Amino acid sequence: MRISTILCIRDMVYFLVTFKNSDLLVIIINALVFSKLYYCSSVWSNTSASNMQKLQLVQNFAARIISGATKFEHITPSLKNLGWLPVKKQVYLRDAIFAFKCMTGCAPTYLTSQFATRRQISDRTTRNSQQLNIPLFKTAAGQRSFHYRIVNLWNSLGVFIKVDLI
Question: Which domain holds residue 134?
Answer without folding.
Answer: 92-162
